[in-house]
Amino acid sequence: MINTGVLQRNPFPGSRPFFSSEDQLFFGRDKAVADVIDVLLNRRFVAMVGASASGKTSLIQSGVIPALLADMKREWVPVYIRPGKRPMESLIRGIQRVFSKNISESDVHSFLNSSQSIGDFLKEKGLTNYHYFFVVDQFEELFTWPVALKKRKSGKNPDAVHFINHLMRLVGEKEIQIYLMLSIRGDFLDYCSNYRELTERLNKSKYLLPQMNRNDLKEAILEPFHVAGASVESGFEEYLLNDMEEVELALPMLQHALKKTWNHWKSRGNTNMSVSLEDYQ
Q: Does 3 have pLDDT greater than 50?
């Protein structure tokens, strides 16, 4: 008999990050999620610092955001952006995506051509009765786009100054509950020292994302299989971790291997069989 309780879709994202809708498949980061939220709620600001491919985006999307949305005491509104080439436009359009019925294209253009703060804009629109969670992921984009590099040669990038000033004003907003999280690669942290208020906040509210320990990695390997309705051969996770220790273990690489393993197991046509080393190899 075919096991009809098995998910049809692959429970592993592969090389891309986890999405917010995949939180039920995201494992191994419970402590990091709790620690980030603790700093965020106490300071209204947290900067998560980590290496490339350390899982920062997945932690935000499938860890922190779902945890806040599960808070029954507050009505959280996540606004997730990446700076991109035009950071201020990214910011206002991030809000527009959430409130598409309240914010028109004309409103966006008017804001971008004004000196209005985001806080004043939200007040003007009557959007003040929420707990906002602003996320600026891949904050290093502020310093790495070609246009940003060109402008920085003569000193501070004025677009970055303008954007960072707006973010700092958000954290200091007194009439609206606004919480801000930045995610930045550790090798770009020095660039932030050019901005005094940002530096001061970083020194008080920085969270260095730790590497996942072996038990965390085992959970990240096994639990998605179990949630998806599959059983796993004993010792599978130990072999996989030992095998991948021979190279520098990056989480996207691990997820890619697991995605391929699932596909091979499904292609065998018998979901009553356990996922085995044969599927991985």
A: no
